[in-house]
Design brief:
Blueprint lengths: L9 E8 L6 E8 L5 E8 L6 H14 L10 E5 L9 E5 L12 H16 L27 H12 L7 E4 L8 E4 L9 E5 L6 E4 H16 L1 H13 L8 H15 L3 H10 L7 H19 L1
Antiparallel strand pairs: 1-2, 2-3, 3-5, 4-5, 6-9, 7-8
Helix pairs in contact: 2-5, 3-6, 3-8, 4-5, 4-6, 4-8, 5-8, 6-8
Length: 300
Amino acid sequence: MSRHLEVGERIVRTEALHGGITAEMRRLTIGTRDGGTRDLVLRTFVDVEPAEDSLNREAGALTLLPGTGVPSPGLVAVDPTAAHCEYPSLLMTHLAGRTVLDDEGLETRVALLARQLVAIHALRPAERPREYVALTTADTVVTPQGADAAAWAAAIDVIRKPAPPYEGRFLHRDFHPGNVLFDVPPSRPAGARITGVVDWAATSWGPADLDVAHCSTNLALLHGPAWGLRFAEAYEEAGGVLATAASERLYWRVRDGLAFSEEVQSVSQPWREAGRTELTTRAVEERLDAYVTALMDALG
């Protein structure tokens, strides 16, 4: 770590950052030679199997993004195989701003999220990242207790079909409010602006619908199903292009919604740690059921 600091610099403070699921995040405050400080962020994968691939992809994305207009951390160093660190790690610059997960000012933030995602999808890297991977199958979906059985059965049938054809785009692949930093004036939530997009470890190549679906599901679980349905409209209003056929849109949105059924507990815990204490595992399951049912009603 110290070999990536300037001569005369030292780490004066470390602070754990909350919100991550697969990796531990720490803010490192560096004392500079002139008596000031600067911050870096250390991302560490502890006992996580795909660490090398994830860190290589994130390093590749952070190398690509400077100069594109997409606000992202700068890469300082990466050790994907733990050759120099105790665990596979990535060191990056620290961005100003904070994640915002509460309901106040949501309408403004949804429009900002949509515009930011359109800008990400417009990137055309010289070297494409790997094709997207969808791990959920019709057989691994976990139907929540008390869910609308007919709606879930119909939704599961949707993803039994082959994926529809699509025009590939550069995907963040984990774009949601927890991975976007905002500057929000205390007295004026409508004056919010995005200061950074983080966690590029799942960068992929695939359909824009998939990124939109992922953010939509997160919004539905954080703020209610209506906001999940709203995000796709906001994305198109911002100039984004989604699949033309309703059946194709349904496929991607249902696929992502059903994927959350397998990880409700791990997804909701960071939200509670961030202050959304009402989002118990059960409450999030109920919102997921309402969202999947709403998708089937709206697009099915």
